[in-house]
């Protein structure tokens, strides 16, 4: 996981956010997800290829299954883009 994304994810968790981390490779996510969980926050590590529309749709579906009450504001931090 890129350093900036890692710092943002942990910083958001430290301020009370539940954080979903996403990347093409799960092995990059497991450590930071464990750190987020250790901060007492809900977390999820999920694999996604943002160049593949189906992969992104599957990611959103999986997130909503686990976090059905995703509310505003929601921030998605990715190695490639941020919303």
SSE blueprint:
Elements: H1 3-14, E1 19-23, H2 30-38, E2 43-47, H3 53-66
Parallel strand pairs: 1-2
Characteristics:
3 helices; single chain; alpha+beta; globular; two-stranded parallel sheet; 83 residues; 42% helix
Protein architecture, described:
The chain has three helices and two strands. The chain is α+β, with helices and mostly antiparallel strands and 83 residues long. Helix 2 links the parallel strand 1 and strand 2 (43-47). The two termini are 18 Å apart. It has one domain (3-66). It has a two-stranded parallel ribbon with strand order 1-2.
N-to-C terminal Cα separation, in Å? 18 Å
Low-confidence stretches: none
Strand line-up across the major sheet:
1-2
Question: Could you say which overall geometry the principal axes of the C-alpha atoms support?
Answer: globular
Structural class: alpha+beta
Which whole number gives the mean pLDDT? 83
Count of DSSP H/I helices: 3
Measured by DSSP, the beta-strand proportion falls in 5-15%
Helical proportion, percent range: 40-55%
Radius of gyration: 12 Å
Largest sheet: 2 strands, parallel
Tally of strands:
2
In short:
Helices cover 42% and strands 12% of the residues.
């Amino acid at each position: 996981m890129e350093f900036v994304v890692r710092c943002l994810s942990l910083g958001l968790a430290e301020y009370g956010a539940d954080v979903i981390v996403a990347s093409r490779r799960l092995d990059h996510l497991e450590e930071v997800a464990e750190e987020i969980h250790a901060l007492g926050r809900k977390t999820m590590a999920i694999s996604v290829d943002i160049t593949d529309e189906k992969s992104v749709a599957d990611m959103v579906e999986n997130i909503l299954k686990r976090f059905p009450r995703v509310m505003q504001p929601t921030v998605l931090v990715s190695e490639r883009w941020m919303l």
